[in-house]
Amino acid sequence: MPTTLTFIGTGSCTPEADNDTACFLLNSHVLIDCGWCAALSMLRRPDEPDATGLSDVLITHCHHDHYMGLASVLFYRRMQRARLDEDAELRIYGPAEDIERVVELARAYLQVDRFSAVQTTPEVIPVAPGESFRLDGLDVRTAPTQHPVQGLAYRFLDMDTGASIGITGDTGYLPELAEFLSGVDTVVTEASAGLADPAPGSTSGHSSARQAARLARASGATGLALVHYPADQRQEIKAAAREIFPNTYLPTYGERLTLEDRFESYDEVERNWGWPDDHP
Fold this sequence. Notes:
The chain is α/β, with parallel strands linked by helices. It is built from 8 helices and 15 strands. It has one domain: 4-Layer Sandwich (Metallo-beta-lactamase, Chain A). Strand 12, helix 6 and strand 13 form a beta-alpha-beta unit.
């Protein structure tokens, strides 16, 4: 089976009518970030499993737009529990400083102590930046990001295909990430700062389109998928990034990246992205 990454949400910190915030589905069973409405957003992609098909959730950092949909995922799975194996609890990975608190708050929001029908006890695995672990068929490495809260950049190696994908979450420009992402097939990163590089010493913890492109170029990645950017600057952001890293795309809701195996040329990458020549 090829490696697939489906863009369940690519928007900025608040969703658009047709696009959730950050939410990505890897190989149809690993969800990276939860957007605002992850369970609903997955249902709108009929050729992918719904939230009952998940085995793992990985959170890049615990800001609201990246974990808000976690409660909906937990609730949906409980309401559809007849379709789950009896012991099919999720594994939830995330930044060691915050993930246990966030998961417990999601459970409290569902009032699991009051309503037995929604009782859920996912396995929570706190991850310190720099730690590595294995999921089903995936080797996962992490690195620190530059953000106001502890963040994790993830590097995934599909051990069946050899394809590799790096997902940074929200981060200021951090040159060290280029080494961490060295040689990946695709970098998925943000451009929240839009067209202007943040001032030196900025504590915003966000990157511009040009900084994202410089990161991809320095890493030697084959392709760059830009997400989490101001929607009204889409065309300008694409043009600015492509000046530095021509192999840049701005995926929107529901689009899927398919990696058959490690690419040898960008022509093959472009073919496997499956987008027409006039993709906006």
